[in-house]
Structures are given as C-alpha cells and as structure tokens.
Amino acid sequence: MARAETRKLLLPQPLTEGDIVGVAAPAGPFDETRFKAGLTRLESMGLIPRYSPDIFKRDGYLAGSDRSRAETINTLLADESVKAVFCARGGYGAMRILDRIDLELIQNKPRIMIGFSDVTALLLALHQAVGLVTFHGPVVTSLGQADKETVSTLKKLLFRQSVFPLIVSDFRVMLPGRAEGPLMGGNLTILIHLLATPTLPDLDGAILFLEDTGESPYRLDRMLTALRLSGTLERSSGLILGQFVNCGSSDEVNRVLERNLTDFHGPVLADFPVGHGARNITLPIGPNAILDTQAGRLDLTEPYLA
C-alpha cells in the first residue's frame, strides 16, 4: 500500500435498515457459537449479514491462507450490494494481507470497514493508503457478549445518528487539558508493529487512542517506551487510554502508564470504554476531533460518513 500524499478523507455511506453487510475473517479462526450470536445482534440492528463459507477455513492460527482471506474481502468489496464489511475476529493475521487488498475497489465505492484488536492493522493501513475513514469497533464474535451501550452506539454511529459529542461518565484524567487533531489509534501491540512500515498513517498532531489485552506489564512498558523513542508520543496532541484487559492488576497497569506518560505534553484521558471489555465504543479513525478532559468529552469537527 502506497503512502497517501495528502490528508484527504474518503467517506463511506451510512447504513440503513435492510442493508446487506459482509463478514470477513482477515486474521484468526473463530468460535462458531460466538459468531452466530454476533450475527443475531447484526440482524437485530436491521442488517442482513452475508459471508462466504471460506471464512470458516483454518490454517493453524489463521482463518485460511493469506490469499483466501484477502480474496474474501475483495469479493465483498466488489459486490455492489454490500454496504459494509464487518470482521469476524481479531487474533493475528491481518498484517499479512495488507498488500493483497484491492484499493481501487475501495476508492471506487468506499465502504464501512469495522473491527478492532488485530484488525487495527487493516483499519490504519486502509486509512493511510486511500484516506478511508475506518471504524474501530466490535468484531462479530464480540457483539453477542457486548453490552447495550456498545450495540446502541455502534448502530447510531453507522446509521449516522447523533453520537458526538461523546460524553464519558467513568473516566480518569491522568493529565488535564484540551487537544485537537485527527482521531487515530487502536491496539497498542499492532500499532508498535506498524511503526517500521509504510502502512502507518501520519500521526503528527493526532489524538491517539490505545488499548490492549493479554500483555504483561513489562511488555506494556516496552511498547510505550518504543512509542516515546520513535517520537510518536511527542508528535501526538492528546492520548485516550482504553481498556488493558488481562495485562496485570489495575495497580500494575496504572503504574506502567503513569511511569511512561506523566511527562506527556498534552491531555491524557484514561479508563475510556474502548477495547476488549464488554463495553467497546466504536470510534472513527481519521476525522479531526477535540478531546476535553475537563468535560470528559470527545467531539468531532469533521464528518466521518458521506
């Protein structure tokens, strides 16, 4: 994927009830029971899921070969009736197919692309390549266990109903302030692995949101140190820290975050409901945003849907 020359947003169309949405598996294999529960949730939102039997393939820790996983996405993108592409699960593997996605299909007809965790690689890479606003939100296998606010916000956001300004009630201000910049981020581990690649968007001035799961405190420390040494933190305007699930006790995680971020020059909002918990609020990647820690508020100043 080539680096975008200028910052120009490519906006997908909003969803409406009765729309067909494709489901792809760009990363790891998934539990079919949880998958079916997620499909039921999509149907309850008035959407019609469509998927190929190929997504059930298994190749070790991957949901089929690189070619098969990429072809599934490209086939959905080539289908004029498909209005969005939801990802079945994260795991690992999305990075392996970034150079196999047909960007022309996206440019000709931008679609909503949504997922999180390992899918962060796909979301950021597509935004970098063609300026597509992508969506960091639930995967199909997490939708069945998601709480009502997660599902409600997801539907409102993708159906272009009022969501922003987003007011967060349970949050912790690590560093107070106000910042403005493009909303970027996702899974911390994946972001670190994109640092040395041309698929990472320009993070200069960005409000960066981060989350992770299953990483021990010393690994979180190492990744945050890499962000600092790479200059990424210095170039960011503000930070939103999501959930760090199964990454040690809350005291251990907070100690790591504070050790690495107390000298950050902008606002830092912690305990934001994004990530691997039961509440995973969908956020668009790419549009300009304002973070105000005093109000516990995140707002957008640019459109995220056409």
If you had to describe this structure to a student in words, what would you say it looks like?
- This protein is of the alpha/beta class.
- It has 2 domains: 20-158, Rossmann fold (3-Layer(aba) Sandwich), CATH 3.40.50; 166-300, LD-carboxypeptidase A C-terminal domain-like (Glucose Oxidase, domain 1), CATH 3.50.30.
- The chain has 10 helices and 14 strands.
- The strands form 2 sheets. It has an 8-stranded mixed sheet with strand order 6-14-13-8-9-10-11-7. Strands 2-1-3-4-5-12 form a 6-stranded mixed sheet.
- The protein is globular.
- Residues 1-5 have low confidence and may be disordered.
Secondary structure layout plus pairing:
Layout: E1 20-24, H1 32-44, E2 48-50, H2 66-78, E3 82-87, H3 103-108, E4 112-115, H4 120-130, E5 134-136, H5 140-143, H6 148-158, E6 166-167, E7 172-175, E8 178-187, H7 188-194, E9 207-213, H8 217-229, H9 232-235, E10 238-245, H10 250-261, E11 268-270, E12 283-285, E13 288-292, E14 297-300
Parallel strand pairs: 1-2, 1-3, 3-4, 4-5, 8-9, 9-10, 10-11
Antiparallel strand pairs: 5-12, 6-14, 7-11, 8-13, 13-14
Helix pairs in contact: 8-10
